[in-house]
Each structure stands twice: as C-alpha cells, then as structure tokens.
C-alpha cells in the first residue's frame, strides 16, 4: 500500500498531510490509463476533476490561431493539473496530451472540495502551487516576448534543469529530454532552430548533448546567460 500511494506523498499539494491521511485521499479517486498521444483534456471543455500523474509524462498545450501548437509545460510523476477549472468551474484553459503511456489518479470535484474542507493544509499547499505556477507563467511570457530564439531555447533548458536535473560539481545532468520538436513548441520556434542552438551551445562549451540527455557544463554561468 505504501508503494501504491507514493505518488500522493510526492505531490506538493499533499505534502503537509499526516501518514494516516493518505488512505483517505487515495479512497477519493480512481486510476486511469492513457496511451501515448491520447488527449486527456481539451481546451474549452468543462472541468470537473483534478489529475495527479502516477507515471509517464504529459504536455499542457494551446493551439494558436495559425494552428501551431505551443507547449506551456511538460509534467511528470506526482505533478498535478486541472486544478484551475476544478476550483472556478470555468472551462479548461489548455489541452493536455499524453507524451507517453501514462497512468493518472483522478479526483472529481465534489470529492476534492470535500478534502479541502477536511484538510485545510491541502488548500494552503494548493495556493502555494498556484502561485508558483503563475510565477513560472509570467517568466515564460517574458521570455517569449522579449528574447530571441537562442535565448528562449536556453530558458526552456533551464526550466528542465531546475525541474528534473541532477546537479553535481556545478554541472546539471538532464535525462530523457523531450524531442527537439517539443522543445521548439515550448520555445516558440522551429525544430531546426533548436538543433542549431544545441550545436552552437556545444561549440561554446555550455552544453554536452548525448542522445536525449543533456549536461549543462556550468549551471551558474548558464543561468546568468538565460534569465
């Protein structure tokens, strides 16, 4: 049972709960599986559930007027999504698509609101989470509007470094980086530009690229350049 609920323990909104409370939370939801490429949520549809990622990754996307996909974020195990529409009752603000086979834990609105009343610490943690997400969105908007493609790609890599990288002696290793097209969709550019940017960064000794793994060779220097 402990292993079965580990994803809940690692989810930021449940971090203040006592050990005895996780069984109660687990009883409020159900697990659902999605195949790679399957649409989990559609932008503008009504929202009635919160999702916690058990395994796999998903991308949060919006489609521009020109039909181009813009990736707002890529989420992995213990991340949550769907909380905004769940709270305000408005339509979904973006679509969510499985990047690979994924398993999700789904809590419907009535049950989640009951948990908020029962455990006020969840509401406080949720507010912190929403604030952090808003700050990241503000930084992304600033990056997309004020910087050139080279710096936007660098900023996206910095996001991955902060969210999933392993730091060691000033270097940051990022495994399982998304494909270059996904990075391009996050940076508002093309796959070819991402490829050229990676090559330029390698020549400047900022990065080492090996397959879908990237090592930032001097994290402090990289952060200075791309924030």
Kindly describe this structure.
It is globular, with a radius of gyration of 18 Å. 43% of the residues lie in helices and 25% in strands. Helix 7 packs across helix 8. It has helices spanning 6-10, 22-26, 83-88, 109-118, 120-146, 149-164, 180-187, 191-203, 219-226; strands at residues 29-34, 39-41, 49-55, 58-63, 69-75, 80-81, 95-98, 102-108, 166-168, 171-174, 207-210, 213-216. The chain starts with 5 loop residues before the first helix and ends with a helix. It folds into two domains: 3-144, Jelly Rolls (Sandwich); 148-226, Arc Repressor Mutant, subunit A (Orthogonal Bundle), CATH 1.10.10.10. 30% of the residues are buried. Strand 9 (166-168) and strand 10 form a beta hairpin. The strands form three sheets. Strands 1-8-3-6 form a four-stranded antiparallel beta sheet.
Counting structural domains, the number is 2
CATH level-1 class of the largest domain: Mainly Beta
Number of strands: 12
Order of strands across the main sheet: 1-8-3-6
CATH topology of the largest domain, by name, is Jelly Rolls
On the 0 to 100 scale, the average pLDDT is 88
Q: Hey, roughly how much beta strand do the residues contain? A: 25-35%
Which regions are unreliable across 5 or more consecutive residues at pLDDT < 50?
Answer: none
**Which geometry do the CA atoms define?**
globular
- Which structural category do the helix and sheet elements fall into? alpha+beta
Q: State the separation between the terminal residues, measured CA to CA.
A: 42 Å
What is the CA-atom radius of gyration, in angstroms?
18 Å
